[in-house]
Amino acid sequence: MEVDERTTTALYDRYAHIIFAYLRLHLSSPEDAEDVTLEVFVAALEKHNLSALSAQEQLMWLRRVASNKMIDIYRRTQRHPLVALDSVTERLYEDESRSPEHIALRQERYQQLHAAISKLPELQQQLLQLRFGDGLRFAEIAILLNKREDALRKLLSRTLAFLRTDYSSHE
User: Fold this and answer.
1) How many CB atoms within 10 Å of residue 68?
2) How far apart are CA 19 and CA 58, in angstroms?
3) DSSP letter string over 114-128?
4) Rounded to an integer, what distance in angstroms lies between the CA atom of residue 41 and that of residue 17?
5) 29-75 tens-digit pLDDT
6) Which of 74, 71, 31 is nearest to 63 (CA)?
7) Residue among 161, 159, 163 nearest 116 (CA)
8) Which CATH class is domain 94-170?
9) CA distances from 27 to 17, 19, 59, 67, 156 (A)
10) Cβ(97)–Cβ(143) below 8 Å
11) Which DSSP string do the residues of 82-122 spell out, in sequence order?
12) What is residue 131's predicted lDDT score, i.e. its pLDDT?
């Protein structure tokens, strides 16, 4: 049995504003309410025996379909919440150090520093690792490397001076 287009048009004319108002109360935007209203009446087109129902039963059926479609929307948004792109980019770039340009520049500086450190003798590399990487004090490093503490302080000072000059020569 084919659905009569005039019946569906009459159904839309009679109940669309009611279904829209119902959806508008529960959805965040008028656009969403319009979309769901259209989905409800598309479902009504597919329902072959809707014209056999009384006017009250038709409205109840349309309202139930609208309610089910809203539930589907709520479930979808809970599983896959939507975040406005503008709000993400605003928060992301509030801190300029997180911008893509700054991240790329920082990465380039790290590569330059890594290259400069790799040029150092092994003892100086170990000293940098133990002092800055592992956070050890000079007394602890002196025991590990079997060196005098004051000698390690001087070596670290010369190492840092070398790295500064090498690093600034690349800029």
Assistant:
1) 12
2) 12
3) HHHHHTS-HHHHHHH
4) 12
5) 899 999 999 999 988 888 877 888 888 999 999 999 999 999 988 88
6) 71
7) 163
8) mainly alpha
9) 15, 12, 19, 11, 64
10) no
11) ---HHHHHHHHHHSGGGSHHHHHHHHHHHHHHHHHHHTS-H
12) 92
Scanning the structure block, which residue is given the tokens 């890594």? Answer: 114
Mean pLDDT (10-residue bins), the chain, 171 residues: 66 91 89 93 84 88 93 82 66 67 87 88 91 89 90 94 82 63
- Nearest to 121, CA basis, from 165, 168, 162, 164: 162
Gyration radius of the chain's alpha carbons: 35
- One-letter amino acid at 96 equals E
Q: Given the structure tokens 């309202």, which residue do they identify?
A: 63
